[in-house]
Amino acid sequence: MRNGIVTYIIITISCIVIVPACQPDRETDERTKMAADAPATGRGIIAAVGDSLTYGAGVPTDDSYPAILSQRLQQDGYAFKIVNEGVRGETSSGTLFRIQQVISSLNPDIIILCTGANDGMRGINPDVLRMNLDRTLSMIERHHIQVILVGVKSFFPTHPEYAKKFDGIYPEIARKHGVLFVPFLLEGVAGDPTRMQSDGIHPNADGYRKVVDQLYPHVRQTIENGVK
After folding, report:
1. Average pLDDT over the chain, rounded to whole?
2. Of 24, 113, 134, 160, which is most buried, counting CB atoms within 10 Å of its CB?
3. Is 107 left (phi over 0), alpha (psi -120 to 50) or beta?
4. So what's the pLDDT on residue 227?
């Protein structure tokens, strides 16, 4: 385990400062092209940034949480377009690597940031996650973009010390940056076979609706507090 963590630290740091190619490639299928090329409409833009949990791996496009959230906002009269910026397999290092491109291309009013699940699955040193989240949020803040930070949990329940350190990073970083914080994306979903796909990692359509039930009040609060 220790050797595996050291290996991932080396790989992760290489992705940040030496070898950008380590970053997972952006999806080139029709689904991602639609998200990237769709014209911005409405009063504002929300970028949902993350990994396969944001992308909606294993479910149709309309059943990903950004799509369901977009529908709910429109139904309630909020003129915001949500762009799905989820990249399958991405770690927090990949998110840090591309966040400036997301900001430059979309100029979003709000970013929903949920990254780190793959760090936890791969046993990457939590200090790397802390550094990446800190730098990512600092970069977003420089552009005066509202942020909702969404946490995930460690995938190593048999390693309680690792899990405790990993899980504690999200509230720590949220406090440091003073951002709105949702402790766990899959609250009420993870561990429920009726809301999870057979891989036990990704929600199904019903699971993503539960995810949106949790996120929606925070998104509304951010909008109603005034997008800068």
Report:
1. 85
2. 113
3. left
4. 55
d(CA 129, CA 102): 19
Asked if residue 205 lies in contact with residue 57, where contact means CB atoms within 8 angstroms, the answer is: no
Provide the greatest CA pair distance for the chain: 52
pLDDT, tens digit (0-9, with 9 covering 90-100), for 58-94: 999 999 999 999 999 999 999 999 999 999 999 999 9
Residue 105 CB neighbours (<10 A)? 13
The amino acid sitting at 102 is V
Residue 222 makes CB contacts below 8 A (sequence gap 6+) with 110, 146, 148, 180
Q: Are strands 44-50 and 110-114 parallel, antiparallel or unpaired?
A: parallel
Sheet holding 146-150, edge to edge: 80-86, 44-50, 110-114, 146-150, 180-182
Strand extents, DSSP E, the chain: 44-50, 80-86, 110-114, 146-150, 180-182
> Residue 37: pLDDT band by 50, 70, 90 thresholds?
very low
Cα–Cα distance, 139 to 96 (Å, whole number)? 9
Dist. CA 181–CA 160, nearest whole Å: 23
End-to-end CA, the chain = 45
